[in-house]
Specification:
With 177 residues, this protein is mostly helical. The radius of gyration is 20 Å and the shape is globular. Helix 3 crosses helix 6. The strands form two sheets. A two-stranded parallel ribbon has the order 1-2. The protein has a two-stranded antiparallel ribbon with strand order 3-4.
Length: 177
């Protein structure tokens, strides 16, 4: 398999992009799992038993631990094993992740210089999905909309419906014609 430079092939890929945590890490290195985990430990957000789960799997990846806890809970339920720990531990880890992201999240003004580049990148695609927990990609999207004078980029939170919109085809329709 040959790895190519994005700038050499970008014109071949304009339909859809899925943006993961790497996009935010490129702007704010504290979003790396290793950094999030260290900050959560330092802030006292990880109880001893939760830290043991991370240690057992030899990981600092919150998502891996959450998937593992969810899987353990499902298996225990299927096998009718009494389980009063996995679901609360899942919630505990999820809340620790949310809290540490809130604590370390940069201010808009701290990343403002990166937002135009993000918006230019996003405008290259017909559809962009962000899997990130933070606001950086979203702020980039909003920056692009400011510059475009409209709403070319939209999110799935539809104010008119006061809900989350799962219909991507509806979201692809132009705003205001």
């Amino acid at each position: 398999m040959q790895i190519r430079n994005w700038y050499d092939i970008k014109s071949d890929f304009t339909d859809t992009v899925v943006i993961g945590n790497g996009a935010s890490i490129s702007v704010e290195p504290r979003f790396q799992y290793r950094s999030l985990h260290a900050a959560a430990k330092k802030a006292g957000l990880l109880a001893a038993t939760v830290s043991e789960v991370f240690t057992y799997f030899d990981t600092t990846d919150f998502e891996f631990v959450l998937r593992s806890l969810s899987g353990a809970h499902a298996i225990n339920k299927i096998l009718k094993i009494k389980d009063s720990s996995t679901a609360p531990t899942y919630r505990f880890v999820k809340n620790a992740l949310i809290q540490i992201i809130q604590q370390i999240h940069p201010e808009h003004s701290d990343v403002k210089c990166d937002l135009t580049g993000i918006s230019k990148f996003l405008r290259h695609f017909d559809t962009a999905f962000s899997l990130n927990y933070d606001m950086i990609v979203y702020w980039g999207m909003l920056r692009g909309n400011e510059r475009a004078g409209g709403h070319r980029l939209k999110d799935c939170f539809v104010a008119a419906k006061i809900s989350f919109e799962y219909d991507c085809e509806w979201l692809r329709k132009p705003h205001r014609g």
